[in-house]
Design goal:
The protein contains five helices and six strands, in the order ααβααβββββα. The protein has helices spanning 2-12, 16-21, 40-49, 54-68, 137-149; strands spanning 37-38, 73-77, 80-85, 89-96, 100-105, 125-130. It has a six-stranded antiparallel beta sheet, with helices on one face.
Length: 155
């Protein structure tokens, strides 16, 4: 009897390799459900799980941030990639929504020019990226460079 129960349990379980290759679940709005963790690996898992065209936007943002801020610190917190400078806190994150990717600059009101999206938080400013938007990478890099030089957000 014990042999039958263990065969049945093993038969219903997914092999470890299949679980690792499965795409993470998506939350409302298409945001990937990624466990909170520090480092590049969880950020890359988040980007790979972003649906449709948003994954390309995530890859472009990540590459631009890495080029602009050598040694940038990365983590996934609250189902969003965060970028920061060691000892200074977080300066930026992005989040996937149904129709756009929202980039948050935590000290955005100190950036020049100020990013266009207002927030209910006094210093935060947003940039919403939609499917057919042309990214102004020079402007984004300028904002990233400025944001990384400021004291960041420390949760």
């Amino acid at each position: 009897m014990t042999g039958k129960a263990s065969k049945k349990s093993a038969k219903g379980a997914k092999p470890a390799a299949a679980r690792r290759l499965a795409k993470p679940a998506l939350l409302a709005g298409g945001n990937p459900l990624i466990a909170k963790a520090d480092g590049d690996a969880p950020v890359q898992a988040y980007i790979a799980a972003m649906p449709d065209w948003k994954s390309d936007v995530g890859r472009r943002l990540d590459a631009l941030i890495v080029r602009t801020v050598p040694g940038v610190r990365k983590a996934v917190k609250w189902n969003s990639p965060f970028y920061g400078v060691e000892g200074q806190g977080w300066f930026l994150n992005f989040h996937t929504f149904t129709k756009y990717v929202k980039v948050a600059f935590f000290r955005g009101t100190s950036l020049r020019p100020v990013p266009p999206g207002e927030s209910r938080h006094k210093e935060v400013r947003y940039l919403d990226i939609h499917e057919n938007d042309q990214l102004d990478e020079a402007q984004l890099a300028a904002w990233i460079r400025q944001a990384a030089a400021l004291p960041g957000w420390v949760p």
